[in-house]
User: Fold this.
Amino acid sequence: MTAQAEHPTPPVDEHTRTSPMLVPRRNYTDPGLYEEERVKIFRRTWQLICHTSELPEAGSYRTARIAGEPVAVWRGTDGVIRGFHNACTHRGVEVLLGAKGTCPGSVKCMYHAWTFSDKGDLVGVPFPRAYGEGLDKSEYGLTPVKVAEFAGLVFAAIDPAVENFEDYLGEAARYLREFMDGTEVIGRARWDYPGNWKLWTDNFRDNYHPQFLHRMIADGRGGMQPGKNYELASGHSMLTFPAYGGFNIEKYAAGLSAELGENLTLTVEDSASRGHTAQEQEARLAAWERDVRHGNTIFAVFPNFDLQYDADGSSIFLEVATPLGLDSTVVELIVLGKVGESAAERRRRLETGADSQGSWGKITADDLEAAVRAQSGLQGTSLETSHMGRGLKPGKVGDKFDEYSLRCFHKLWNSYINEEPIVLEKGFVHE
Amino acid sequence: MSEQQVFEHEVLQPPTAPTSGTRTYDPALLERVRAFYADWAACLDEDRYRDWLGLFHKNAEYSVTDRENTDTGLYLTKERGIVALQVRAAYVSGYWRMQRKPRVHLIGNLRVFVESDGTLNVKASVVLVRTGLDGHSRVHAAGTYDDLLAGKGEGFEILRHAVVLDADVQPYDMTDIV
Assistant:
């Protein structure tokens, strides 16, 4: 019997027939596949770089790496945000330095002072006559990368043939626009971990694990919860669940007390979850049942970006998981606030916006431990595949703990790696 | 020709806030402060978190940020009051799903300023060395303290413990108290 034969036979519904329920473990451990991902996925897809509020004035720039290559987005004196490979066309030195900065109008390379305008044109070469007729400055401008501004976010793509960004988003465009409305960046933080980047994207598309991995959730909200798990068109996904309270503060306190060896008496204000009256809970559940956008949402854009949004807007953040190597990933946390919110609300966000997330966070630290243990476990040969087969009813929508969101990622991942035509689906799953 | 104004951690402003207090060189006082931080480090390195909680005033604040966010004001962690500190101590004690690793806190370069109300503003450097699952000891975090201490008996209690981490990329398991 082969290892795969131990798993149940997939049903023959069109959705599950074309979506991988069994994901090869070598996808996380094979150096050759990682190199293919760099070329076939990260060079060919849109990558989140920053929010427009992080490029506030002429000359503002931010740098990043896409598929290992240095890129920069730079606001010109004409207000336009452009993207470039961040390497001097002379000898390859990075021209825009640091994670962010301001350089209005033009930039002079630190090495030999070749100078580029904010449109990327080479406008200055010291002592040019030594080149004779051999240097045509028009051929030595900074190499552009594609830039898309959408819902206040700035994305970049290396491949000039990448799809139009809104087509790339498909139905996800509508949600991203709604979630980002009226937001601005209030801070960033980041962490790295010794594991493959897909362990993070799998994690934020998976809502089966929280009640087991995170003791706060296990104690406070254990058991089956209402929620929806959506495959959105073209590899994007959305998990959503009602923003109602019902947090079991006594059980949470008991779990903490047992570890500390001292009795803690907590009120709901001491938990990471706000409490709600029974009436409020009913109203929130009803609102979510009418429209899932009135719930807490984890929204993912292929390949490596997610947005997490509490229904009341009390917590909004973005994450980008960028591979540094086969088993090395850095995750950027971008914390958002609401434009024009009160000073007290802004202070609350600054104090709590990164508290549950991050390698220091009460939630995320558990996820990272699981990711690191998974990277180790996946090296084994006991099974060739990981199982992502929860939720088998036809269609693209399942319950909270189902895995439509995971399967649509791996389905598109396969298409990119196998260089199949990428068919961008349009239309909405639900209205 | 414009020059780049670059924001990298090495060119940010010093992370500790200016003090209004008067620098003290009183050897006896400095020795008491050093002893206090030695006890603090021992509590953390020996997993004695209930003892560690005993070093705080009931309304104390504990915060951790990084250099980058000294500009933005975003905290990685901010706990207000002893209950919040108890919750954090419980997480560190085992509520998180991870194996605790051996660690050493090294606290030095203490500078003590006496504030007008008699409290002490202590600025210090901290290095946390941790031994990972692979058995190797490595620097896990480095940064600065900007603390406020009040006298309590022969020793002190913490009113404010504010940490600024040097790194702008944190290690995957940044769950130790710094």
Summary: Helices of chain B lie at 27-45, 49-53, 69-72, 81-95. The radius of gyration of chain B is 17 Å. Chain B touches chain A through 42 residues (CB under 8 Å).
